[in-house]
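FORM 7B: Structural annotation worksheet

SECTION A. Query
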Amino acid sequence: MTRTDIINHIINQLDAEKYLEIGVREPDGNYNLIACNYKVAVDPVPLSDGILPMTSDEFFAQNKETFDVVFIDGLHHADQVERDILNSLEILTPGGCIICHDMSPTTELMQRVPIQTNGAWTGDCWKAWVKLRSTRSDLNMCVVDTDFGVGIIQKGKQIPINIGSLELTYHNLEFNRTEWLNLITVNNFYEL
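SECTION B. Predicted structure
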């Protein structure tokens, strides 16, 4: 199961009509495969027509629309991912869903910022996720254990996790991954 499968499943389940994608890169990799009537794409360096050529911060500063589903796969730095999630929450329709890619890196190297690999790079997106899991009781958050971690956020409620004095290091993520991310299987996802 890929992020595209998850997004399309959620769009279908919610009967969503409006979709926003933050960070597109290659449109044929995800954006063009999304089955939604109205789609908006944002990327500061668009590789095709029809994508708004701006950063996510610039987009959110001028946006007046709401969206049923928002997919965040932009700059893979924890501070930017946190801003993108918080801004997306402000424009989410009631019952809507935010989906975040790259929340569960499989190696320490792939999550380093700045990028230090020629292979898959998730950045430290997971740190924004853990911060919100530990501070926000008004959200319902889980990460599907596929495609480097596909995070799902809806407004709702959760019991914030207690990370205590643990630092947000990859070593600590390895030992606390299931709890910190609220990691679920693909089968669990279909049961949501």
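SECTION C. Observations
The chain is about 30% helix and 20% strand. Strands lie at 18-22, 38-42, 67-72, 92-101, 139-144, 150-155, 183-184.

SECTION D. Sign-off
Analyst initials: ____
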